[in-house]
Amino acid sequence: MYLYKLFHFYFRLPVLIRLLLTVSILMLSFGIIIHVIEPEHFPSIFDGIWWAFVTGSTVGYGDFVPLSSLGKIIGILLILTGGGLVTFYMATVSSTTIKREEAIKRGDTVFKGKHHIIFIGWNERARQLLAMLEELNKKEHVVLIDRTLKQLPQQAGDCHFVRGDPTSDDILAKANIQEAAYAVITADPAKQESHADQTSILTTLALRGNNPKVYIITEILTKEQLSNAKRAGADTVIRSNDFMSTLFFHEIFRASAVQPFEMLLKILAKQQFSLTDVSEELAEQTFLQISNTLVSAEYLLIGIVKQHEIMINPSYDTIVTTEDKLLLLEPM
């Protein structure tokens, strides 16, 4: 019964561990045997084990050599069994390493880190976010989930890739959603806006169901789906279409010649944004009053986050409370 449990435990071990254990037992056995047969040429058991490993791996230093006929027979058996087993072990290690690398590229491996950021969907916004993290030297672990990619893009850097449907519990488990700190859901540019928003909302529901504590940032394209995204569990909803439409409007109807619109976007991309709490001194003031106060410190107030909604350039008489956050453009 004991031997049955021992063999059962042995065969449940990973193949590399089983092979390493087998090689070690084989070399130890031959080392002890050669020490017993020729104690004058192999003074200690360690010398015998050293000879077994050197001979079995076909290195052959020649510092210990059996001289008796029985010792030479033991050496032949060691070369036939140990040499082949060691070669098979090394080939298995190489094959397992290659398969592991291929699985990582295909997105078939499980992420085991904690307090990481999950990006849902590979697109230009996700690529720029990763580039910004790298540029600002943010040492954050990032997991990318995408169903369309066949392997991890080179532009994604060293982030962990999980291929599959982000609404699937199994795929989210591969991304270790239960230990994630943040999740960023970007809208799918390949879909119609309404369909893209529906997918984002379903993904938000799946994320919230698997981790009630993860901070979810969801991009929504249509205003009608804003409330649904909040009900689904999004902590912050980004309405990217509203922001871009405002920029286009100001570009079309600008009164005087200014820098081209494309140049304006490049400048904004290089600027450092920050999200800060509202101090007691600034609380209960209007957006205009706070904006005038921050100008003296060379900070440009471009919006606020009120009740998990990002408001770019709200009405000047909007009252800002300590529960809100300020979206600032820091000086260059």
UniProtKB/TrEMBL annotation:
- Statement: the UniProt record of this protein carries the keyword Transmembrane helix: yes
What keywords is this UniProt entry annotated with?
A: Ion channel, Ion transport, Membrane, Transmembrane, Transmembrane helix, Transport
What does the entry give for GO biological process? monoatomic ion transmembrane transport; potassium ion transport
PROSITE patterns under this entry?
RCK_N (PS51201)
Main location as per UniProt: membrane
Where does the RCK N-terminal domain lie? 114-238
Where is this protein localized, as stated in its record?
Cell membrane
Q: How does it sit in the membrane?
A: Multi-pass membrane protein
InterPro entries in alphabetical order: K_chnl_dom (IPR013099), NAD(P)-bd_dom_sf (IPR036291), RCK_N (IPR003148), Trk_Ktr_HKT_K-transport (IPR050721)
Q: Which residues cross the membrane?
A: 15-37, 49-67, 73-91
The cross-references to Pfam families, in alphabetical order and at most eight, read: Ion_trans_2, TrkA_N
What GO terms fall under cellular component here? Answer: plasma membrane
Question: Could you tell me which SUPFAM superfamilies the record lists for this protein?
Answer: NAD(P)-binding Rossmann-fold domains (SSF51735), Voltage-gated potassium channels (SSF81324)
Note the superkingdom of the native organism: Bacteria
Q: Which PANTHER family match?
A: POTASSIUM CHANNEL PROTEIN 2-RELATED-RELATED, POTASSIUM CHANNEL PROTEIN YUGO-RELATED
Q: What is the recorded name of this protein? A: Voltage-gated potassium channel
